[in-house]
Design goal:
The complex is a heterodimer. Helix content of chain A is 29%, strand content 18%. Chain A is built from 19 helices and 22 strands. The relative contact order of chain B is 0.12. The chains are: A alpha/beta, B alpha/beta.
């Protein structure tokens, strides 16, 4: 034994520090919570995950892999999604939400440019699944099943895959090559595709049920609903979906000089803006006002920028024809009375206010319905497919999702349904394993300590100037600057997940926050933590919380 | 393995003031002492006056200090540090960072004479005052740093005098460097300590270190209270280099003093049934004078 210096009775190097952890009544714990963006995303994307990868590692490739874990079509969603995530973003109460949609598009575009490939989780399984419809719901279901090794075959009624994304969304919003490339990337997982096969017409449903272990029905709402007005069987009267399908198939549609679009939904906006690009004067006729319009606000704004005329409080009464051609619409002014069952004000006609709107083409964008030809399932409200919480229909082994189940919804909602259906199908085939975990609670802006965040301007994507928009179908928003998107991702609060700010590490008066030698993350040294709660209070993103001692 | 946080660049964390000390949960002084020790580094001698810091950090046989540590009486930390400096000069050893540390009582009241002597003689010592605005170690008695209106055990109806302005008194000794800091901005605090240690001669740094027990707030609020003290204007943060006030921290958004006073038990008597008494106006006046004086 070493001789101790004079006057010392104990070797100080061998003294064990006094463990102050026994003083504690509350204990800090790291709790990963659900950020509001992830919670709001109908497709279930890990938004915080990919934004943090961009912000911390500036790595677009890894960000693409995080995003494409849940979403097979990031470049598409980055263009067409109405981004409910941004409405949820906690930054909304601080300055303005993170431009998540633009970031998603930039990440998706990077994946296309670099030809990144999806990773298979399980190489091969022998079970076969048929997917009817190659829209977002069907694709997402097929994608997730194929990743898990199932043998998937998609039946598509039209000539090209993509469903409403191919035939319903105009190419100034979603260029064809983007969708095509994303689809090709999905086929690489080993999915069979057969086009021009309408299940129920070209091939009976029963045959599929016998030949496959499970079936997913994602047929969407492809039939345009018409309203009950005389003259609608005239030439040059289209339903909204029909019109968009014709244009998107590359056919030349002669719309003439004046186009009247009836309806106030997203399809109506798309039709109006497409007709505008075909060179017509377009007016949208809607019974109520702008406030009641079901279309996405940004779409209405853009349509207004493009000088689409809006006639509110106007209801068509009759389509006037000369020979077989439309020449105009007889319409009547409406006034709004107390709300109806849908919560919107009920329009009532004003007597004697009839007028004629000249029209060479009339587009009825007044709702869509499911085309049930040859597919017999139980229905909800006599309109949409009835499905239980696992998305199974009234027929055993047959699942359904997307617009056909939800009613008219977004691409991301359909993707989310496809994902849910895929895991339900997997559970069903594996014998009813309940694999879904409940997600942790959502974090709100009042829970955050925003002192540590800096105000920063939101990234603003720039649209083509108006005079350059209307002559062609070129994409409205040109490519985004990847550097600007990385800057934007740094605005993410990282709600509910440590972003390595180091506050807990620096502020602990007892040095009881250590960097774990294994993971490199911060961890609590409970031998010394006195439970004062300073780390939890000063944690900007509320990853640290105080709980009762175990 | 995650890299060292980019948010902590230029911040020192060496744990030279280690875990296992007996400070209360959320102690501002323990936090400040660690930030100071880590910024000063291993080549440092700490001379500490009697007070909370000495009591909770140095019991035999497991002191928290991982640097040489000298405990002195309540009043003479500065004199002991002067002696250390003289010894180093006599032995022609060094250079070494000599830090004398004390609470507000030992700085402003009991030890004022020895500090004044140290500053006047020009020893190469950094004196750090951990200001928790009363004699906390002996049971919350009033010191000359106790702010106007604060309740202590010896001023049960609230202190009637204003706080002594020690940084200005120190600066008037004609010393090269004086600074104030708080524990909430650890980067600023460490920068000031490092800067002070590069200057030859006597230096004085005044650190606001909340005492959850004596101030009557929850331990988790230590940092928040510091922030409010700065943003109300009650604790101006600045440097005095060669007699000139510089690097004043501007208040981003001015906060009324009520927000600073309300979370603290020592000011509770100023709010009868939530209504602020006239002392609160007086405290607001002090804050306004600070704002005007230092152009916060």
């Amino acid at each position: 034994m070493d001789k101790l210096p004079l006057g010392l009775a104990l070797d100080l190097r061998k003294v064990v520090p006094y463990e102050t952890g026994s003083w504690r009544t509350l204990m800090p714990v790291n709790i990963m919570q659900t950020p509001p963006c992830n919670h709001a995303c109908p497709a279930g994307n890990d938004i915080r995950g990919f934004l943090r990868v961009l912000a911390e590692k500036k790595d677009y490739e890894e960000a693409w892999h995080v995003l494409s874990r849940t979403n097979p079509l990031p470049a598409t969603c980055g263009r067409v999604c109405p981004h409910p995530c941004e409405d949820g973003c906690n930054r909304r109460d601080f300055d303005s939400p993170v431009a998540i949609n633009s970031a998603e598009r930039a990440v998706g575009d990077y994946g296309l440019e670099e030809n990144l490939e999806h990773k298979k989780l399980i190489a091969h399984r022998k079970e076969k699944v048929a997917v009817i419809g190659s829209g977002p719901a069907g694709l997402s279901c097929a994608f997730h099943l194929a990743k898990r090794g199932f043998q998937v075959k998609i039946f598509e009624a039209y000539g090209e895959p993509g469903g409403m994304m191919r035939y319903g969304i105009p190419s100034y919003r979603l260029p064809n090559y983007v969708l095509r490339q994303e689809l090709e990337n999905i086929w690489k997982l080993g999915i069979d595709l057969e086009c021009n096969i309408k299940v129920g017409v070209n091939i009976p449903m029963d045959q599929l049920i016998q030949a496959y272990d499970s079936i997913f029905v994602g047929i969407g709402a492809q039939t345009g609903l018409t309203i009950d007005i005389p003259g609608q069987d005239a030439g040059n009267v289209f339903s909204g979906v029909e019109f968009l399908r014709e244009v998107n198939s590359g056919k030349y549609v002669d719309v003439g000089k004046d186009v009247v679009v009836i309806g106030g939904g997203n399809t109506a906006m798309d039709c109006a803006r497409v007709a505008k690009r075909l060179g017509a004067n377009v007016s949208v006729v809607y019974r109520r006002t702008r406030v009641e319009m079901p279309a996405i606000t940004a779409e209405i704004d853009e349509a207004m920028e493009e000088r689409v005329m809006f006639r509110y409080h106007t209801n068509p009464v009759k389509i006037i024809q000369d020979d077989d051609k439309v020449v105009g619409i007889l319409s009547v002014q409406m006034e709004l009375k107390e709300p109806d069952a849908s919560g919107r004000a009920r329009p009532v006609p004003i007597p004697g206010s009839e007028s004629v709107i000249p029209a060479d083409t009339v587009i009825l964008a007044t709702g869509q319905a499911v085309d049930y030809d040859g597919i017999e399932v139980h229905k909800r409200d006599n309109k949409w497919i009835a499905a239980d919480e696992n998305l199974m229909t009234s027929i055993d082994r047959v699942f359904a999702g997307g617009d056909a189940v939800l009613g008219l919804e977004t691409v991301s909602a359909a993707i989310g349904q496809g994902t849910r259906a895929a895991s339900a199908i997997e559970d069903y085939i594996d014998g009813g394993v309940e694999s879904r975990l409940s997600s942790p609670p959502v974090i709100h802006s009042k829970d955050l300590n925003t002192y540590y965040y800096n105000k920063k301007r939101r990234f603003q994507k720039e649209a083509l100037p108006i005079h350059m928009r209307l002559k062609h179908f070129k994409e409205l928003y040109p490519a985004l600057d990847p550097e600007a998107i990385i800057d934007e991702s740094e605005r993410c609060f990282s709600c509910g997940l440590c972003y390595n700010c180091g506050n807990c590490y620096m502020y602990c008066p007892d040095n009881a926050v250590k960097i774990s030698p294994k993971t490199g993350l911060y961890e609590f040294d409970l031998d010394f933590c006195k439970g004062c709660g300073l780390c939890a209070k000063e944690c900007p993103c509320r990853y640290i919380q105080m709980t009762l001692e175990k | 393995m995650r890299e060292q946080s980019k948010y902590l660049e230029g911040v020192d964390k060496k744990d030279l003031f280690a875990s296992g000390h007996r400070a209360c949960g959320g102690c501002g002084q323990a936090l400040a002492a660690r930030l100071v020790a880590d910024a000063a580094g291993e080549n440092t001698i700490a001379c500490v006056a009697t007070g909370c810091l000495e009591v909770f950090s140095s019991p035999y046989p497991d002191p928290s200090w991982r640097i040489p540590f000298l405990h002195s009486l309540f009043e003479n930390a500065a004199a002991v540090a002067s002696g250390v400096d003289a010894a180093y000069k006599a032995l022609k050893k060094g250079p070494v960072n000599i830090i004398a540390q004390g609470g507000d009582g030992s700085t402003a009241d009991i030890g004022f004479q020895s500090i004044s002597g140290m500053l006047e003689r020009g020893h190469n010592v950094l004196y750090i005052c951990y200001d928790n605005e009363a004699y906390m170690n002996t049971g919350v008695q009033r010191s000359s740093f106790t702010p106007y209106g604060a309740r202590t055990t010896t001023t049960p109806t609230g202190n009637t005098t204003r706080k002594k302005n020690m940084p200005m008194l120190a600066a008037d000794h004609g010393i090269p460097y004086v600074a104030t800091a708080t524990v909430d901005d650890f980067r600023d605090l460490q920068v000031k300590i490092r800067k002070a240690l590069t200057i030859e001669g006597p230096k004085y740094v005044h650190i606001l270190a909340p005492c959850p027990l004596g101030w009557g707030h929850h331990g988790e609020l230590t940092v928040e209270i510091c922030r409010l003290a700065k943003d109300t204007g009650l604790f101006p943060v600045y440097e005095i280099i060669d007699g000139k006030v510089t690097n004043v921290r501007k208040i981003p958004v001015k906060v009324p003093v009520e927000e600073y006073l309300k979370p603290q038990g020592r000011f509770k008597h100023l709010f009868k049934k939530g209504v602020p008494s006239k002392e609160v106006d007086e405290i607001q006046e002090i804050a306004n004078q600070n704002i005007e004086r230092f152009n916060l």
